[in-house]
Amino acid sequence: MTFARTVRAVLLLAAAAAAALPAAASAAEKVDLLLVLAADVSRSVDAAKFQLQREGYAAAISDPRVIEAVSSGRYGRIALTFVEWSGVGAQRVVIDWTIIANAEQARGFADRLLEAPRSFSDRTSISGAIEFAMGQMARAPVEAARHTIDISGDGTNNAGRDVASARDEALAKGVTINGIVILSETPLAWNPDHTNPPGGLENYYRNNVIGGPGAFVMVAQNFNSFGQAIVKKMIAEVAQAYRRPLLHASLRLRSKRRASRRGNGRIAVFALRNNDLPGPAAAAATKGTQMGGMLQVSRQPV
Predict the structure, then answer these.
(1) How confident is the model over 221-259, as pLDDT tens digits?
(2) For domain 25-289, is the CATH number 3.40.50.410?
(3) Domains of the chain: which residue ranges?
(4) For residues 195 and 77, what is the distance between their CA atoms, to the nearest angstrom?
């Protein structure tokens, strides 16, 4: 075979290989939000609490109000991945990146979540969870203007590096970290400060875990109320993806401060105003608040 024929054959093979690649390889699909759901499965979360947490996430992801909010975005879709975390090095992707644009896709995600086995039962490394979630962001197969990590947990960071340092590194890369804390009525006998730290777990998350534009902490009074809290939180997170920088914002969180006490920390309460939401998202937010009054979140001091 002559040199010219050899070159031609190589070029033909290369062209055929390129044609076989999906379009996403050359131009990543765009979504409104990349959302990492990171669930605590440390040993303070017993079997009953674990099941309630899993069922709460599954119900929220497939909730019609959440789907309605998703459909109101510019692209009408978000990308989700679900990870579980515990101690140092104990993190696992339960469901990899999945695009959610309709009820059928959401139900499929929820069904897979309910069927998956528990990953760990170790210590609590929130810093490790943040680092792992950042790794998942880096390998996401789609693009979004807004990247959010959603950390749920029932205790403080007690393993691995300093959690505030891990948080700050994530914030420097433009990622928002939100939290949902699950309060424990009875402190752990062997380590009461883990689930009930001085000032309260909500205050701990606000000061050490959450951060970024619009970051908030939502509270589930117990594992039984976790599902309702997740629905409200996901509507808020999806709605935040509509915001534009500076004066071009299409979603604004208008604040109303009111004094309240939980532990030793003051709480800033924000109302998600429906006239700041585009179309169906307003209705979704309104329905979401009917379960527990005004959609309230605790945010870092401003």
Answers:
(1) 777 788 888 898 889 888 876 654 332 333 333 333 333
(2) yes
(3) 25-289
(4) 36
